[in-house]
Amino acid sequence: MRVAGRCWIAVSLLGVCAAIGSTHANGAEEGVVTYEQFGALGDGVADDLPAICAAHEHANARGLPVRSDPEATYHLGRRALTAVIATDTEWGTSRFIIDDSEPVEDHKRSLFEVRSLAKPVSLDLARLGRDQRRLEPWSAGACLVFVENAHERIYVRRGLNQNDGTAQKEVFVVQADGTIEGELDWDYEHLTEAVAYPIDAHVLRVSGGVFFNIANRMRQDVGYNYWARNIRVSRSNTELVGLTHQVTGETEFGHPYSGFLNVNRCANVTLRGCSIAGRKTYRTIGAAGKPVDMGSYGYAANLVVNLRMIGCRMDDIHDRSRWGVIGTNFMKGILVEDCVLSRMDVHMGASGDFVVRRSTLGHAGLNAIGRGRLSVEDSTLHGPSLITFRSDYGSTWTGDVVVRDSRWVVPERVGAVVLFRVDNDGTHDFGYPCAMPQTIRIEGLFIDDSSRSSDAPPPMFFGASLRAAAREGPFPYRVTERIVVSGLETASGRRPTLGGDPELADLIEIVWRAGETATIQSDGERLCRFGWTVGQCAKRYGRTIGLWATKLPPWIEKRPLSDNQTVGRLATKSPRTDCERHSRHRGPRSGHRRSQ
Q1: Alpha carbon of 53 to those of 38, 168, 241: distances in Å?
Q2: Topology adopted by domain 231-239+259-269+292-512
Q3: I want to staple 73 with a disulfide (CB 3.0 to 4.6 A). Which of 95, 96, 234, 393 is the partner?
């Protein structure tokens, strides 16, 4: 019996060793899970999604990273399956085929979801207040908190896609000590739902992957029927890097997609170096019974705190047959940096800091509503306005707008040249008070209106649709208090007017602060008038600082430029006050601070 027992143990050990050896042979000796271990063929024909789901399930249970075969082409089939990603995943140059040209089992289901394995916790909260800073007592650790009051309706949309609004809701981060990040936007007298989603401490990274999507050909003449078949991110502290998405096979018929990269109910998500294709725009019958455009978003984000898009791209950003590439709702903290996109669109609100920096936006431009500080810095915009505040949601922005060192290229087909497009007649209840930005500051802006005829009206800060009477409607629209302008030039040489009712001139103060004292450093470090380097100035306008000084807008009083010294103090008369002379010196980067 003893010998037999030893033999059995030996045989068992040999079996274990054989299994380990087999695992080593397919790569797990490095602690990495592959799709091929679970039966994926990667030939571009066989349905590999079941094997991909199994591989991620195995990796998630053991905390192991996943790596695909860089030479493989994985077909993701048509079954209603979702691969849950909870560990680092490297797709590299692997290709993935998503074929929607034939019916699929569930077109609203995601193919991948980056998800935390931590379970959400229901909260018992009685009420919350706008701008509340803490939750006490709090012992759940760092969490993303979602709250909703289904008895209150907000974002009651107006226009061809009109609706009855959505439930009052938002997300915010609660740190371990109870401090709230992403201040509350609303007062909640009652809560119908409150859920805490634990935030994983480490950053999960998904990198690479080239996705080819053969578009759907669904026919539905009335209403929207959004497709998913995408990558959904619902885990906080996640970074997607270098993913590419391409679209082919679009026909006369089809329905929109809800965002190939779809970020939902999470915090601190970075999309870095991704390239998402624009999709064809289709038509349908909207809620008002009239034809409307039906567009897809390549990127979508909803109920997110701190979304960062760094170096993201799309194809031809001026192709009007392609819908804009990103749409967002219920956002807190957005950074778009070093990106080239056809549009940046906020539907149902952004709050906190919303920054577009060193980026180019194409034909659909920058569209937003919300509250906080909206900044456009060192960017080029090609939209129908410099910034459009969406009229279907009340053209509201409660807070300030800053435009600095930027350029707006006015499209040829646009009507009036309007910097800040707003439209609210004060007669519609959007579910919240509506307001124009309290203060608008322009600190360096070139308006390229060279496509306009010489007899066209001058640019306007606000369009002709803005009426002073909107302040006295049943749902008053509060107008901007102050516009402060410095370093603004137009290609036509025409000075922007206020626009709208003449009565608005008595309500909105415009302060023209022109030129500002500007020192040119001997090493060419900074051109302080706009905060640009001399090289940047030459790149943008093809002229040196000496020539630039002779090309100031005609409404600015010119001063001689002394060699290597200052541009001089330049001043204009304000439309409402006597000449306000203002001088600021911006020296080397280590020197003076920007005055406020």
Answers
A1: 9, 36, 21
A2: Pectate Lyase C-like (2.160.20)
A3: 95
